[in-house]
Amino acid sequence: MQHIKFGGPQMAMNFAVLCGWGGSKLKNVSKYAELWHRIGWRTATIEMTMDMTFYPAYWTKVREVARIIANKCHAHRLSQGPTAKLVSHAFSNGGTFMQLSILEEGTGVRFDGAVYDSAPSRQIRFLPAAAPLVIASSNKPCDELLRDIRRHVPYALAATVASAFIDMPPPLGLFSKLFTPEGNAPRPELFVYGERDRMIPPSHVESFVRLRKSHGCHVHVLGPLKDSPHCEHGRTYSMEYEHAIERFARVVAAGQQASNANDQIQRTKPASLIP
């Protein structure tokens, strides 16, 4: 189906859902799915187009995609039994919008673990204002950049003004649920983030890590990574990234919890622990 790609071993016990960053394409997000395939997990990879990220869900395919993935997760757990594990792997804020959209589908889906790559930002009302920045950093050809600017900047301006007075519709309107244990149930979580991320500063991720620890999450961290751009950590720190995913997947698959809530996944030059 459009916007979704399934892969990995057909009879795998465990299932990872990769939720792409705002403006992502399947071919780019699918590179990360290969990490999960190498450790024996089946995957669903989702692209988050600019439309799906910033427009109301009833204008786009967000709800349809989320419903398909939620049903697939439900069917996977039924077919593989109660020990089957589901993990969300979300990239940037756009990925968290899809993660939350899937959880909204009401099929009883729950994720046993979550990976946050370059996410999330702080909880703010003015999310539509990020559209021009996301477009500018998308590395698209000039003609595509101009098209996205024409399509999204007028709406982004109007929605930013409106967000001061009314709640935003999904998927942007779901973002606040990420910050509550009711909307985003505690679970083992892995955070990967950069030291100089210009889109989502490390202080935003670290604030969310502390919040999730207060919710009872057992947290693993790879970061802050030096000289690693937004959503490119799998390229700049490929070995460390793959090792972090592999180790985290083992923890989730075994139903284990980190021995220490400050558990730091080591890399060549260990980052300082989050206080």
Describe this structure in words.
- The longest helix has 21 residues, at 142-162.
- α1 (26-38) links the parallel β2 (15-22) and β3 (42-48).
- With 275 residues, the chain is of the alpha/beta class.
- α3 (62-80) packs across α4 (92-103).
- It has a seven-stranded mixed sheet with strand order 1-3-2-4-5-6-7, sandwiched between helices.
- Helix content is 40%, strand content 16%.
- The chain has nine helices and seven strands; from the N terminus they run ββαβααβαβααβαβαα.
- The model is unreliable at 257-275 (pLDDT under 50).
- The protein has helices spanning 26-38, 50-54, 62-80, 92-103, 131-136, 142-162, 202-214, 233-236, 238-253, and strands at residues 4-7, 15-22, 42-48, 86-91, 113-117, 189-194, 219-225.
**CA-to-CA gap between the ends?**
44 Å
Q: Which percent bin holds the helix content?
A: 25-40%
How many helices?
A: 9
Give the CA-based shape: globular
Q: In what range is the share of β-strand residues?
A: 15-25%
How would a textbook summarize the main sheet? 7 strands, mixed
Helix-strand string:
EEHEHHEHEHHEHEHH
Rg of Cα set: 18 Å
Structural class: alpha/beta
Q: Indicate the low-confidence ranges by residue numbers.
A: 257-275
- Give the averaged pLDDT, no decimals: 90
Question: What is the number of E strands?
Answer: 7
